[in-house]
Design goal:
Blueprint (H helix, E strand, L loop, with lengths): L1 H22 L9 H16 L17 E5 L4 E8 L33 E8 L2 E9 H6 L1
Antiparallel strand pairs: 1-2, 2-3, 3-4
């Protein structure tokens, strides 16, 4: 019986040593490549926010894409016009226009009066937007 207890204790000690040696590293170290890339992307997101869906420019903190929401149940419609840099009629700055507003659906260049139509789904904790097309490609269908 003493031999069995000593074997069990020896196995426990070996198991604890293996756990310590193999599981001692809790996660990637600061020098690991993927950690550095993840930190850079987080800082970039904090600095620039998100991209405009029409021109692809980074939005600065506080900047918004100009859009009109027409709520409905279970989903609504949204007209997306662009960010302050690409949409001339933007209420914040008036926009420069001609900054390359492109429909994400058909890849056509949008004129000053064109906009993108999207369906909006309200889910608990988040909003999902699905682009249906622009005034140009929706007219062709």
């Amino acid at each position: 019986m003493v031999a069995e207890v000593s074997v069990i204790l020896l196995l426990l000690i070996v198991l604890l040593v293996l756990i310590f040696l193999l599981g001692g590293r809790k996660g990637p170290e600061k020098g690991d490549e993927w950690v550095v890339r993840e930190e850079e992307s987080e800082s970039r997101a904090k600095l620039f926010g998100t991209r405009c869906p029409l021109c692809g420019e980074w939005l600065n903190p506080g900047e918004r894409v100009h859009s009109h929401l027409y709520p409905g149940k279970p989903d609504g419609l949204m007209h997306i016009f662009g960010c302050p840099r690409c949409y001339q009629g933007h209420p914040d700055k008036g926009g420069r226009g001609g900054s390359g507003r492109i429909c994400p659906y058909c890849k056509e260049s949008l004129g000053p009066e064109d906009y993108v139509i999207a369906r909006v789904f309200q889910k608990p904790g988040k909003t999902q937007v699905h682009v249906l097309g622009c005034t140009i490609c929706r007219e062709r269908r």
